[in-house]
Design goal:
Blueprint: H1 2-19, H2 24-30, E1 37-39, E2 43-46, E3 49-58, E4 68-77, E5 80-83, E6 87-90, E7 99-100, E8 107-116, E9 124-134, E10 137-140, E11 144-148, E12 150-151, E13 173-183, H3 193-196, H4 199-211, E14 217-228, H5 234-259, E15 269-276, H6 278-286, H7 293-302, H8 306-314, H9 317-326, H10 328-331, E16 333-343, H11 347-356, H12 363-370, H13 376-387, H14 394-406, H15 410-423, H16 427-439, H17 443-453, H18 457-469, H19 473-480, H20 486-494, H21 498-508, H22 513-525, H23 529-542, H24 545-552
Parallel strand pairs: 2-12, 6-7, 14-15
Antiparallel strand pairs: 1-3, 2-3, 3-8, 4-5, 4-6, 4-9, 9-10, 9-11, 13-16, 14-16
């Protein structure tokens, strides 16, 4: 607005000249000496405000000593007007509170003022209104038009706030085990016929057989753990445990052969001989009614050497005899353990039930089912069922709100997010409340939520949107991180990085009419006429309303003649 700034200072100087009886011809002759410069040109919205700045210098012997003058820029639009602050100048002997301009030396000046933006200001004119006096003489001059309209490119920002969702805790299987125990006599690994007829042995075979017919039961491993009771020599007991493991393996082999099992093989069985079972001994003593059990347990705690333990326990002769009868027999064993997974619903089953009878599923099953479909209406139905569960937590309401947001149902989204936030304050619930609050227009409240949410990339992106709205474009770019979107491109345009903006738009894959419109703005700011026209034509083909906008948009003020769409 260099020329307009010149008009401002010229107008002030003209008022001074007239009041002080200086001739207009002289002022016109000296007007280039003012060196006035005003920015921006045209005016621009910046954080919901319009800034105006003018700088220059009054030359030597220019401002009459007794002159006082007031200059006020005013933005005039349909239905109203808004004045920038008034700037007063006066000579060395004038009465007033203006900026004193020495007659002999002159003086540099600067002018800055800000007004709040209103939508009506888009179609406006900037006038300069002058009032001057010298002594009893006063003069008010006709307004001078020094600018037209306001650039509102920051308001192209899209509402593409990033929400945070919650994952399900669905476990597709439960790890379980089926066991059978084979007990042995003292210092023996011989199998006893009575042991092989025990119910747990029979049940183990039946279970393995059932796994072959039930796809929900998946055997993962078979392990035989074997032990010796902690009596006798340690080396002998280690060997005895190994022999008992082999005996347990033979029992399992007989079961496989007798029942003709085909879903397991004896070659895949793992033998794990453990030696003396001191842990089992300690547990059995703890739960027993043996009179001296506390003394025995103290020996186990204080004595780490196994041989010394046994010696000290044997010294309690009466108790040791009871231990041999009550405790040791159960420790002489081999445990055949079948580890397996009990599988839950498959993804296909979950989705089928979730869409047909969601109330029959458990909470985590519903959370998982909702994640398996891209159909937003199905997601809503399933998440609603999850929210209704008695054990529902914040996650279902969070995700339900996210789906509503994707459906552009902001009232429903905010309601769901508010419930989630009331259940628990987390990064997800705080972030999403920040989204709802910003979209409603409360940036300060939104930032409170977002700061509470932390610094996830999505949350920082949302903070960047607020920075754009507040006119802090470099901060927005910093917060956007690695995102490449329409809004990251917009921030770079506003920060005068046309190349970066163009790169971000291309990377965003945004093919909307508004994206083409922004490409046209980048071209206009780069003075690329053909690119302006081509991108505007593409934008208007996708969104006809952008044609009327472009013809009024001062971003394209230098390309009006080329706009033939």
């Amino acid at each position: 607005m260099k020329r307009n700034g010149l008009y401002l200072m010229l107008a002030v100087a003209t008022s001074v000249a007239i009041v002080s009886c200086n001739g207009l011809k002289k002022m016109d002759k000296l007007k280039e000496e003012l060196g006035a410069d005003s920015t921006p040109d045209p005016l621009e919205v910046h954080g919901d405000s319009i800034d105006l700045k003018i700088t220059g210098k009054f030359p030597e012997k220019y401002f009459a000593k007794k002159v006082y003058a007031e200059s006020t820029p005013v933005l005039v639009y349909e239905g109203g007007e808004t004045a920038f602050k008034m700037k007063a100048f006066q000579g060395e002997k004038a009465v007033g509170n203006g900026d004193v301009i020495p007659y002999k030396t002159g003086k540099s000046f600067s002018y800055e003022s800000t007004i709040g933006y209103k939508p009506a200001m888009d179609n406006s004119t900037l006038q300069l209104r002058i009032y001057g006096k010298q002594g009893s003489k006063e003069a008010t001059f006709d307004p001078m038009v020094i600018g037209t309209g306001v650039i509102t490119t920051p308001y192209l920002m899209k509402n593409d706030d990033k929400t945070l969702g919650c994952t399900d805790k669905f476990i597709p299987f439960v790890e379980k085990k089926q066991e059978a125990i084979v007990n042995f006599d003292y210092n023996s690994s011989a199998l006893k016929p009575a042991e092989l007829k025990q119910a747990d042995i029979t049940d183990l075979g039946k279970f393995i057989d059932s796994c072959s017919r039930n796809p929900k039961l998946v055997i993962t491993s078979i392990v035989i753990e074997s032990y010796a009771s902690p009596e006798g020599e340690l080396m002998l007991n280690d060997g005895l445990a190994q022999e008992r493991a082999e005996a347990g393996k033979k029992v399992l082999a007989d079961i496989i052969k007798k029942m003709k099992l085909t879903n397991v093989t004896i070659e895949n069985v793992t033998l794990t001989p453990k030696g003396e079972d001191w842990d089992g001994f300690s547990q059995a003593m703890t739960s027993s009614n043996i009179e001296d059990r506390n003394i025995i347990l103290n020996v186990l705690q204080m004595t780490k050497d196994f041989q010394q333990r046994e010696k000290e326990i044997k010294n309690i002769s009466k108790t040791y005899t009871e231990i041999q009868k009550v405790i040791f027999p159960a420790l002489r064993r081999a445990t055949i353990r079948v580890n397996y997974k009990e599988m839950g619903y498959t993804d296909q089953e979950l989705l089928a039930i979730g869409t047909s009878n969601p109330s029959s599923l458990k909470y985590e099953e519903l959370m998982k089912a909702a994640s398996l479909t891209d159909n937003l209406d199905q997601k809503v139905s399933i998440y609603k069922a999850a929210v209704a569960k008695s054990d529902a937590d914040y996650r279902a309401s969070t995700n339900l709100g996210n789906v509503y947001y994707m459906q552009n149902k902001m009232a429903d989204a905010e309601q769901a997010w508010s419930k989630a936030y009331s259940l628990k304050k987390t990064a997800e619930t705080s972030n999403n409340m920040g989204v709802a609050t910003r979209i409603k227009g409360d940036r300060k409240g939104a930032l409170t939520y977002l700061n509470e949410a932390g610094s996830a990339p999505e949350t920082n992106y949302n903070k960047g949107l607020i920075d754009i709205q507040n006119g802090n474009y470099s901060a927005a770019i910093s917060k956007f991180g690695s995102y490449k979107t329409f809004n990251t491109a917009l921030a770079k345009v506003l920060n005068k990085d046309n190349s970066g903006a163009s790169s971000d738009l291309d990377a965003s894959k945004d093919s909307s009419g508004l994206a083409d419109y922004l490409r046209a703005i980048i071209a206009a700011r780069s003075n690329e006429s053909s690119a302006v026209v081509n991108n505007l034509k593409s934008a208007v083909q996708k969104d006809a309303a952008l044609g009327a906008k472009a013809k009024k948009d001062l971003e394209f003020r230098n390309f009006k003649d080329a706009m033939n769409f």
